[in-house]
Amino acid sequence: MADSHDHDDVPLKLHNESVIDSDLVIYPFTRLGEESFISIPMIEEHGIEKHLETVRTLKTKETDILLCTAMKSGTHWCHEIVSMLISQSLEYNTKGSLHHMYLEFAAYFFDKLDEVDDPRLLTTHLPLHHLPLHHVKNGYKIIYLNRNPKDRWASNYTFLHGKLGIPDWTWNEFFDNMILKDDLQGGWFNFTREFEKAAQIQTANILPVKYEDLKLHPFSTIKKMAEFINVSHTDDFIREIIEKCSFDNIKKHKFDSTRIIDPKHESTLFRKGVIGDWKNWFTVAQNEKFDEMYREEMKNCDVDFIYEH
């Protein structure tokens, strides 16, 4: 099994440059209409409209699997689980960027992905309307992962705080500038409504997965994922994946490409991994304001989240 220290031997490459030890300033965010996006080299080089068009027109394979997640919803955790199901092994994914390629990058390195065995797993934080049309219309597989928005926002704050370019916001400032505006990556409410509707009326081949279910009911949730992507699985294998992908084990072994946005190039991807941490951040007034916004935004969306455990 690859050791966690192997990460530095397989640097993330963008435009044939090793940037795992370089700086990537992600703020100010890039705007397009009412949406904002974390700034990445491809956006700066091509412009946001051309960048999104490149992603939308990407021709994926029928065997490709998209893991679509709202930021800080357990993306890397779920990616590791699905990677183990696909590879039929208990090895951590320490192979580097090609084996944990974000769709936003993959659009420019798709020829390189021929080196990766099928089925290939591509991850994205983009909303449904920015996904490759070829993939969605042809009914290729999409795993849609989401998390209760309060814990997700608390996790986003602690993750983004101190990152290169991000303003030194207090929690209250973050609440006003990020949570109430809700436009990052197209906005969580839009992201959730789109995927939930598409899954319900089956306009795309989507398996909805909730962070809280993966946390509280890992066996049945992983079994559903295995059946959805049509891979062999035994009860013992699923139990071994659950152990390998415990929070502590993932924190030790997960390949973390987000070090490039940290001033010290340290991994800050994993913090608590609990349900209900939002209570340590939201004031009573903020919680009431958010609940009011949630009721209005989600009044026609039938989805429930677990907020405490």
Given helix and strand content, the structural type is alpha/beta
Q: Report the C-alpha radius of gyration, rounded.
A: 19 Å
Count of individual domains = 1
Nearest-integer average pLDDT: 86
Number of helices: 13
CATH superfamily: P-loop containing nucleotide triphosphate hydrolases
Write structural notes for this entry.
There is one protein chain. The protein has 13 helices and nine strands. It is an alpha/beta fold. It has one domain (4-297): P-loop containing nucleotide triphosphate hydrolases (Rossmann fold), CATH 3.40.50.300. The strands form three sheets. The chain has a five-stranded parallel sheet, sandwiched between helices. Strand 6 (101-102), helix 4 (103-106) and strand 7 form a beta-alpha-beta unit. The longest helix is centred in the middle third of the chain and has 14 residues, at 188-201. The protein is globular, with a radius of gyration of 19 Å. The model is unreliable at 1-21 (pLDDT under 50).
Structure summarized in a few sentences:
This protein has 309 residues and is α/β, with parallel strands linked by helices.
Set down the secondary structure blueprint.
Blueprint: E1 13-14, E2 17-18, E3 30-32, E4 35-37, H1 41-46, H2 48-56, E5 65-69, H3 75-87, E6 101-102, H4 103-106, E7 121-124, H5 133-137, E8 141-146, H6 149-160, H7 171-179, H8 188-201, E9 205-210, H9 211-216, H10 218-228, H11 235-244, H12 247-253, H13 284-297
Parallel strand pairs: 5-7, 5-8, 6-7, 8-9
Antiparallel strand pairs: 1-2, 3-4
Helix pairs in contact: 10-11
